[in-house]
Target: Lipoprotein-anchoring transpeptidase ErfK/SrfK
Amino acid sequence: MNGSLMRSPGGALVVVLAALLLVSGCAGASGRAGSTGGDDSGDAGPSVSVEPGSGANGVNPKDPIKVAAENGKLRDVSLVNGDGEQVEGELAEDGSTWKATEPLGYDTEYEWSGKVVGSEGDTAPVRGGFHTVSPRSVVRATVNPIDDKTVGVAMPISIKFDSPVRNKAAVQRALDVRTSKSVEGAWAWLNDKQVDWRPKEYWPAHTRVSVDAPLYGIDYGGGGYGKADLTSEFEIGRSQVVKAEVDKHRMRVVRDGAEIANYPASYGKPSNPDLHTHEGTYTVMAKHPVEIMDNPKYGYTDVEKKWAVRISNHGEFIHENENNRANIGSRNTSHGCVNLTNADAKEYFQGALIGDPVEVTGSGTRMPPKYAVYDWMLSWQQWKQKSAL
Model:
């Protein structure tokens, strides 16, 4: 019975269509339908539509900017700013559409010109104009690592902004990371002016990474807009992990899964929390053959130390300290740094990469996750909770 009900409308439709065909056949016999009396129902003339609409204000410069022709083909389409500079664009092969192929400027008036030509030679003008958004501020951003760098397996991708970002979700949606090897990772906002991407685990060695951050035209909130698009292509180097064992007074270097060095070391004084070397995964941030160190609170200024590898903005380095040689390998007496002999510090320095992880264990206290670079001080769950999406 259900089948019968579903077929009934179809049968009625056949009858209606047949009636319509008969009416159409009678009209065709004497020429175009409706050709006598009333309005002519021939082909409509050419027309044009523009996007954004004419008179629009506050247009985002990265919104689609295009012209579409109906019943004709576009000719001589041009979009110019107030200085008469023409916007680059592309006309479709069939002449039906024209679209801008470069971003527009902020706070700028644009005017259309051109025409659409119909099949009978009749024309319609392309005209009108619009004004792009006027930001309260245009915010600069930077990306690190930069192009062509080779970095360690703990290196985060970091985008920093000159001003706070309110609309974090809009920014994060625009960001894209592509890798030559399968890598699970996520973006996290460390503060209002910095968003980092790190993998769940250390990067696979020799991964090629491409970052695309099309930030121009993005509304950051509070009247701020992105100043420019950013890109970067870099490579992850060999895998090297430092195992800094505070309780054993040793620093081991593991490269591609094999231990290549095991140095005696001296770490921070355990009796003073300000000087203790705290546990956590640090990241190599910088390398300097000579570093000038100051800590007036503890009685030293302008002290030169060689082969200095910075691992935290809290003040921790791996460096030589021949003045502390008697304690290296037996007692922890530094002001928080990892002290090595000159020969060992030089050897380690020469093989270290920015972005190498340094895993400090055996001290009994944790480094709070607030000193750059602290990306790896957070668990994966904590990291994902800092996403804006």
